């Protein structure tokens, strides 16, 4: 065994040199691919996929050469035969890894959910920062980063909040029951139209929605920026504008009312209004 190990040392050294060359080639090939891809209009996710595939192909070739150097009897055919025998076992053992790998490739290939989009999936809301073949990095709106398995994003519905530049927002505004609803709707509509950031070209909806316990509620809808901060800023401006306009017109935004009803309790055998005996 000692003599065999000594005889194998040159081959091991050559294999290490092959792996070092493979690392250098993969590094420079990735840079060249980035330069070539940089001149195109490919999405960042596709660029990441191409870089990953280039690295993977070079490393597979380098590892194959290194194995042939260390084990001269090693051939690609033996690798294929070995994989055929153990494919079922490997598939069960690494099912999650393969699932996330394939999901990552498909996510990178599809046009939707680009890097920089704000998404919502299974209670996770945040900005897509990076997509790998194993997981997607989602930066939550509060600053934390969540590593989401690609299979989760591929198998579950994903809401892309920033797919378009604008999205529709809505709030509920209530007025008292003695208010002229047509006049109140006009006041609310003009207030929303005058708020900063509201796209009046797409229209402003003011619908009388329901009879609430203390008010008649209007659902107010308008179009503005799709980013989460744009949403909060737009809602703030619209709510303030509606409040000022209703106050100016003397239209009441009612507090919750509570009505108490008192009934006279009459003892048995006595008529209502009959005086009680001492």
UniProtKB/TrEMBL annotation:
Cellular compartments per GO CC: plasma membrane
Localization (cell): Cell inner membrane; Cell membrane
Residue ranges crossing the lipid bilayer per the database entry: 12-33, 53-74, 80-109
Keyword Glycoprotein: no
Domain Mechanosensitive ion channel MscS C-terminal: 170-253
GO molecular function: mechanosensitive monoatomic ion channel activity
Protein name: Small-conductance mechanosensitive channel
């Amino acid at each position: 065994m000692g003599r065999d190990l000594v005889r194998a040392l040159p081959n091991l050294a050559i294999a290490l040199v092959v792996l070092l060359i493979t690392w250098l080639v993969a590094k420079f090939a990735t840079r060249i691919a980035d330069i070539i891809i940089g001149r195109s209009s490919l999405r960042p996710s596709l660029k990441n996929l191409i870089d990953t595939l280039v690295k993977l192909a070079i490393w597979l070739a380098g590892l194959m050469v290194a194995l042939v150097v260390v084990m001269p009897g090693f051939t690609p055919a033996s690798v294929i035969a070995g994989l055929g025998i153990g494919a079922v076992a490997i598939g069960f053992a690494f099912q999650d890894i393969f699932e996330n790998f394939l999901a990552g490739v498909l996510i990178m290939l599809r046009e939707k959910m680009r890097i920089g989009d704000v998404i919502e999936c299974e209670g996770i809301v945040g900005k897509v920062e990076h997509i790998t073949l194993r997981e997607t990095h989602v930066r939550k709106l509060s600053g934390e980063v969540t590593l989401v398995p690609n299979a989760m994003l591929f198998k579950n519905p994903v809401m892309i909040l920033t797919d378009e530049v604008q999205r529709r927002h809505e709030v509920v505004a209530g007025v008292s029951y003695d208010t002229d609803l047509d006049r109140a709707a006009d006041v609310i509509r003009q207030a929303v139209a005058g708020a900063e950031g509201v796209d009046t070209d797409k229209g402003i909806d003011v619908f009388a929605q329901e009879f609430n316990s203390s008010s008649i509620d209007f659902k107010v809808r308008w179009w503005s920026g799709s980013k989460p901060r744009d949403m909060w800023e737009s809602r703030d401006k619209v709510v303030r504008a509606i409040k000022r306009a209703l106050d100016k017109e003397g239209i009441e935004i009612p507090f919750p009312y509570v009505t108490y009803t008192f009934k006279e309790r009459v003892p048995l055998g006595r008529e209502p209004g009959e005086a009680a005996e001492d």
